[in-house]
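[Solved] Which block belongs to which protein?

Original post:
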Amino acid sequence: MLDGLGWVATAFFAASYFCKTSRAMRRVQATAALLWVAYGIWMHAPPIVVANVIVASLALYSDWKQPRLSSADNRQPEI
């Protein structure tokens, strides 16, 4: 079971590179990091927990802090 959690966390992180938007990528990476936190807690491995709490926090913060674009902002510039 424990190894399975580590493999799922790895799969989430690897899958994040297939996301079409940076916002989706950050959310998937935050999810992967939270899975790694659970894995680290289960393994009694503070470095894994701390490192991935930092990664998840930064991913979620940057996702929250990124300005939302309206549909008008997504138009191609006219030349």
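(Second protein starts here: sequence line, then its structure tokens.)
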Amino acid sequence: MRRSRHPLTVEQAVLAAEAASSKTLEPTVVIDVGDLIAITDYFVVASGSNDRQVRAIADEVEHRVKTVTGSAPRRVEGLDDLRWVLMDYGDFVVHVFHAEARAYYDLERLWGDAPRLDWEAEVGAARL
């Protein structure tokens, strides 16, 4: 049974994915984990090829989400070593990996049974 979600959650997760994607050529994925775990609805997974790019992605996500929605992450971890930055917004969590760490932890495989959100289609539809 699908748990109740805040109506703006998907829009915020899409906004975070769009912000992350604007700073990297690596694929950005939004995983709908809301029916599988009780702590959050979506994981946004992105990666950069070096420390500076990982930092730029995290900064852009935080800036864009704050500017558009007024929301700031409840907690951010991993900014010291920039291998895996976790940004907890409550209803969605952004994971920004260094490329090697993303391949090692492979969240997309770990959460392989969870549906993926076609966030790029959501962005395109919103612009029409």
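Accepted answer:
You had them paired correctly. Confirming on the second one: The chain has a mean pLDDT of 92.
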